What does this fold into?
Amino acid sequence: MNIIKELANRLNVKEKQIEAVLKLLSEDCTIPFIARYRKEATGALDEEQISIIDEQYKYLCNLEKRKEDVIRLIKEKDLLTDELEKSILACEKLIEVEDLYRPFKEKKKTKATEAIKMGLEPLAKKIMSFPINGDLNSLASGYNMEIEVAITNASYIISEWISDNAYYRKWTRNFIFNTGFITSKKKKSAEDEKKIFEMYYEFQDRIKYLKHYRTLALNRGEKEGILSVSLDYDNDKIFENYVEKVIKNKNSFVVETVELAIKDALKRLILPSIEREIRTMLTDKASEEAIITFKDNLEKLLMTKPIKNKTVIGFDPAFRTGCKLAVLNPFGEVLEIATIYPHEPHNKKEEATKILRDLITKYQVDIIAIGNGTASRESEFFVSNAIEGLNVKYNIVSEAGASVYSASKLAISEFPDLTVEKRSAISIGRRIQDPLSELVKIDPKSIGVGEYQHDVNQSNLSDALDFTVSKIVNEVGVNINTASSSILKYISGLNKKCIDNLLKFKKEHNFKNREEIKKIAGISDKIYEQCIGFLRINDGDNPLDKTKIHPESYELTEKILKSLNLDINNKNEDFIKTIEKASKEELSRELNSDPYTIEDILKELITPGLDPRDFLEDVLLKSNVLTIDDLTIGMELTGTVRNVVSFGAFVDIGLHNDGLIHISKLSKEFVKNPLDVIHVGDIITCHVESIDKEKEKVNLSLI
It folds into this structure.
């Protein structure tokens, strides 16, 4: 197999693009660096495309290596034929290679291997020759054992031969997958108090069309002992197909014996194995799709627009232990910590109101960020009443992972004298000021914007989420003079030693230019090349140091400015207009440079170091509270999308529970994937579809 050519066909990209990506990766270039600064080589492939090329190339290389190993192992047994070798080389999946290798594997002790030791392989071969003359007793005599014992054990050998046939296994796998059903039932003794798996008590669906979230739900219900799950398919049709393929002469006296061997092969060897393979295949596919959903949700959450230059109170709600308040200046620095007890069992509402209003007035607070955990909505009612008449608004903030951060070594090192709850209030407040900088302190898996995250492959999930965080951090870039170790660890090329040395330097004095970074211990030429474009110096010696322009392109930037007769230190309206009118094609020809780099430089000269999050919608701020009694069918509401799952989206409209927009209510058109329509963090206008006051559930619609 020509791996490059195969990969180009699979991914619908040019071979030279794949070759360029693989060459750059082999030179220890990172994916963010390649995507941003080597567009001319890759044809402007993005991070996701580069990652897929990397993964698929490794898979195909492993596939080719396995083919070579299998061919070598079969050849060593002197059993390799030209036809078998061609079949192995034509395989496109590892499972197909393993099917072909199955008959040649060294087997553990099986009924067939024991029968072979008994000297019954010749009898099995005679039976499979489908003789016409004679009878079974005569055929099975002469083996120093009872005839019935000889036939039974020879049949075990035949069963294993049938089971080892790669063609039969592939046909069976495809037949069950395409025509079979997956069924679940509630176990008689099982207890499902909250009826989480109620819809699966009597459930059946086509295997081929099973939704990935249902696969994961069935797996979880089975794991928790609530459900029994099975595959249902046409056994008779499978048996008939095997009879047609295996039995070469229907007039032979061994037909009944072989039919029994086929039944044994199917029941004992083939079907249990194929069922496991299909369940594994469904789980792997479901896991892959769930991880994609998690990645997309996480990306949108990390890209939430920060609320800059605002003084914030982080409000960590609680009942018995009191609500923790953290007043933060616009830079996220703690000004004051307080605790109030407005809820049960204390009910010190007046005292709590006074403390909150005093803090708002004292520090001229702009926004209160309320965590969405326990006592969240009760706290929202309290805050809404307490701030009446004051020029301040509030927002409900997801506190997923805040407790994980608050108890972490990082949080302890930041605030060693504070309790976990007070650190949590700080984290909640910072999440509205700069969501990205705060969320990178938390294990992405703890942020909670996925579905069935504990039921998917945890290693794959971690890799995917880390990739997403790295992608976003590098896309946004960081100010090296204010960056924490938590965010620097995601910067392209940097390792722990480099980060420690960068932070050590920064403690003594700020970086004035990117050249200083090159001199830090541990920053090799390669590391500098990979990281420097993503590290910004906002008030340094060189105005280009606060842009995404890589230092390797500074000379080209100066040539562009000279060609356009512009001075970077004299940015006025004419400066912007001139750049906007500039032709990247003409500059590319004139300066003998690629148009991708030219285009990126021109963008940065117009808006140097622009935060891509600034283009996003503003966070929805509120000043009053909504109750379910306020709602009416058809009522129009504005809300924030909190989570997107396979069957729809959950939207914060200000109630205790988020409202659900079912996938069927996202659009008048058919929606295959909710992520095609809606994303975490979106501010949407929807209307009330139905209200269930007893269960406190609201269904919404975008239609």
